Amino acid sequence: MAGLDKVVTSYDDALKGISNDMLLMVGGFGLCGIPEGLIQKVADSGVKGLTCISNNAGVDGFGLGKLLEKRQIKTMIGSYVGENKLFEELFISGEMEVILTPQGTLAEKIRATGAGIPAFFTATGYGTAVAEGKETREYNGKMYVLEEAYPKADFALVKAWKADRFGNLIFRKTAANFNPMIATAGKITVAEVEEIVEPGELDPNEIHTPGIFVQRVIKGEFEKRIEKITVRS
Questions:
Q1: pLDDT band at 11 (very low <50, low <70, confident <90, very high)
Q2: Would you call 200 helix, strand, or coil by DSSP?
Q3: Is the CATH number 3.40.50.150 carried by domain 11-118+151-219?
Q4: What is the mean pLDDT of residues 99-126?
Q5: Is 225 exposed, middle or buried (0-12, 13-18, 19+ CB in 10 A)?
Q6: How far is CA 151 from each of CA 6, 97, 156, rounded to the nearest angstrom?
């Protein structure tokens, strides 16, 4: 990479520096908008003891499910489980710690990380197990829970539709999901994209994530698997 050019041509370069016990944030919602190739490379790297922040953990044998198969995730922080039998087994056996977080709170904690906001109050979870051990405060007659932002991720892995060589990103429709927030919340943000164009080719009004947040860009090939196919009999 020279100057402002963020493009790398190998997954080794895309994930250079990844090691055991790191904090990873991974974009996607279910299997929609996940950085498939980057996840596969993490699996192939053999790193262990990861703390992973993502909405969910993929499915058996695909997405983050590949990291579960190799027991690479020590702590999973997310908002949804249920598509993955191995996830359940690892949690029940105590092999993996699971921290469930309301989906909106998860998104806002990630956004706060990227924005440099240390904490915020939310009404979500007040009076439930979610609020245990956390500060609560009343505003205008309503009770709120203090939620802290996450530390900056060692690596933030996102999937985008288009990027230019400067790392400016455009996400496509529902594949955006958690990706724009996560892209701002990493010490090293790596974007796996469908298409790379030259600087100036992207309409500035359509850019979702400015390149200042992105350190590396790689063009990927995507299976775009469907979680559950439903067809007429």
A1: very high
A2: coil
A3: no
A4: 97
A5: middle
A6: 24, 18, 12
